[in-house]
Specification:
It is a single chain. The chain has 3 helices and 10 strands. By secondary structure, it is α+β, with helices and mostly antiparallel strands. It has a single domain, classed as Lipopolysaccharide (LPS) transport protein A like domain (lipopolysaccharide transport protein A fold, Sandwich). The radius of gyration is 19 Å and the shape is globular. Keywords: Periplasm, Signal, Transport.
């Protein structure tokens, strides 16, 4: 493998890493400092099109991050290295990661797409995200990483479903109990 080929292969692997790191918003900060491993039955590189493809039982691990897919395709246009697109396909694509607060976030979809320049994650096809017992499910979920904005959509005739457990969202401790007591006495 010549130097140019090695460089492009590494860029594809780095792009996969960006995808892995961007799915959950509040990921463990230490994950980015951990080594990344991408395993698959087959890996191929098209130098002319700047496309790296990982196929068959793809497993991406870095720290607490665990992404599994049937196929991951990393496309890097030669004219603009910022426009990297990473697409993962599976039955389903699954991911898991711990957040800084120790709570896990996990999810799945038929397809996951990450546009690096827009920092936009799109999950399509039975998209599902879960944190503890709260979850959201729809045909499509989009997430803008820097602004932490999410939207969920469903096909015609279907609806987006969200389950929120208030007890898991509330702050616990003396200050929360004190405020609760004060509002009851008014």
């Amino acid at each position: 493998m010549n130097q140019v080929t090695k460089k492009r292969f590494i860029q594809g692997a780095v792009a996969s890493a960006i995808f892995a790191l961007s799915l959950p918003a509040m990921a463990l900060k230490s994950d980015t400092q951990q080594p990344m491993t991408i395993n698959s039955v087959k890996q191929s590189l098209d130098l002319e099109k700047n496309v790296t493809t990982f196929t068959d039982d793809v497993v991406i691990k870095q720290g607490s991050i665990d992404i599994r897919a049937n196929k991951v395709v990393v496309t890097r246009p030669s004219s603009d290295s910022d426009k990297i697109v990473i697409e993962a396909f599976g039955t389903p694509v699954t991911f898991y990661q711990l957040q800084d607060d120790g709570k896990p976030i996990k999810g799945h979809a038929s397809k996951a797409r990450y546009e690096v320049d827009k920092q936009l994650v799109t999950l399509t096809g039975n998209a599902y995200l879960e944190q503890l017992d709260s979850n959201i499910q729809g045909d499509k979920i989009t997430y803008i990483v820097p602004t932490q904005q999410m939207e969920a959509f469903s096909d015609k005739g279907k609806r987006v479903t969200t389950v929120i457990l208030p007890a898991q969202l509330q702050e616990k401790g003396p200050a929360a109990n004190k405020n609760s007591s004060a509002s009851k006495s008014k």
